[in-house]
């Protein structure tokens, strides 16, 4: 079926940061490649020739090794996981309404998407080279270098997560070769964790006894108290995603016929939790109704929901919140979670709908 390429909201061309409209994400377990958000830090996307690319695995390992793409694919079994990626900055625009966040990309609801990823398990590669028992972290380094700071994109994950069977070195996305802009030839996919840990254009895996000292681990992607300013080592590094949800259809501000309105959205539990309930409200949370949940496509994916609401003519704000399997629920107010880098806005989802009474006669 030929479809038009999805229209993206481009926040910046270089680095390329873009997100789809929320309605494009609605009702699909897998996000089409042309509607998958892009989040980059470097001005230029690195140009990598897969024929000469190699992955270096070093640090606290018994047998440091270098794998060509062919060697990686031949030596390690391919595994598939359906995983939702979500940028820590998703929904930042809701925090900017509370207080400005100069210099931070004003992401709407679309800095998230779900794909079927296939590749080698990072655990299999690490076991192959032999991990030193004193190691605690795994540093993942990409090929791209931003203007400021002038260092490659590198972050780390704790060894325990790196060894979990769901963490992939992916070369395929939605049954196609991984697109260059999503990190080809090989990217990391760290299910349940903020998108920043899923390093694209992977070049090096370094086993270590400390987290990465790089900018994106030690300064950025950390949760700070509201009155703190970012500094090396301040705040806590963001790892597992917090429970979140959004309304995906109708669009925010849409005009709909008054009466029964079909509202749909997604919920994402984050970490290794699952979505257990989604509530919707048309009176700002005074009363709630339970939404119907679609199956969760995988432990690592979002779960779509829908509800039929009876809307009177006029303007109604539809509110939604999700609960996860650890009894976590979204907070009501973005002001409660405002933080100086504008991360993890998981306040209740809110869209405004204008219901139009049917014309008589
Ligand atoms: N090498 C590299 N990996 C990266 C990034 C980057 O800028 N460079 N951005 C990270 C962030 S913040 C996110 S949210 C995801 C976005 O992945 P996507 O562009 O494929 O959607 O990639 C992560 N991996
Ligand atoms: Mo991100």
TrEMBL record:
<dbReference type="InterPro" id="IPR008335">
    <property type="entry name" value="Mopterin_OxRdtase_euk"/>
</dbReference>
<dbReference type="InterPro" id="IPR014756">
    <property type="entry name" value="Ig_E-set"/>
</dbReference>
<keyword id="KW-0500">Molybdenum</keyword>
<dbReference type="GO" id="GO:0008482">
    <property type="term" value="F:sulfite oxidase activity"/>
</dbReference>
<dbReference type="Pfam" id="PF00174">
    <property type="entry name" value="Oxidored_molyb"/>
</dbReference>
<dbReference type="GO" id="GO:0030151">
    <property type="term" value="F:molybdenum ion binding"/>
</dbReference>
<feature type="domain" description="Oxidoreductase molybdopterin-binding">
    <location>
        <begin position="45"/>
        <end position="216"/>
    </location>
</feature>
<dbReference type="InterPro" id="IPR000572">
    <property type="entry name" value="OxRdtase_Mopterin-bd_dom"/>
</dbReference>
<dbReference type="GO" id="GO:0020037">
    <property type="term" value="F:heme binding"/>
</dbReference>
<dbReference type="GO" id="GO:0006790">
    <property type="term" value="P:sulfur compound metabolic process"/>
</dbReference>
<protein>
    <submittedName>
        <fullName>Sulfite oxidase</fullName>
    </submittedName>
</protein>
<keyword id="KW-0560">Oxidoreductase</keyword>
<dbReference type="InterPro" id="IPR036374">
    <property type="entry name" value="OxRdtase_Mopterin-bd_sf"/>
</dbReference>
<dbReference type="Pfam" id="PF03404">
    <property type="entry name" value="Mo-co_dimer"/>
</dbReference>
<dbReference type="GO" id="GO:0043546">
    <property type="term" value="F:molybdopterin cofactor binding"/>
</dbReference>
<keyword id="KW-0479">Metal-binding</keyword>
<feature type="domain" description="Moybdenum cofactor oxidoreductase dimerisation">
    <location>
        <begin position="242"/>
        <end position="354"/>
    </location>
</feature>
<dbReference type="InterPro" id="IPR005066">
    <property type="entry name" value="MoCF_OxRdtse_dimer"/>
</dbReference>
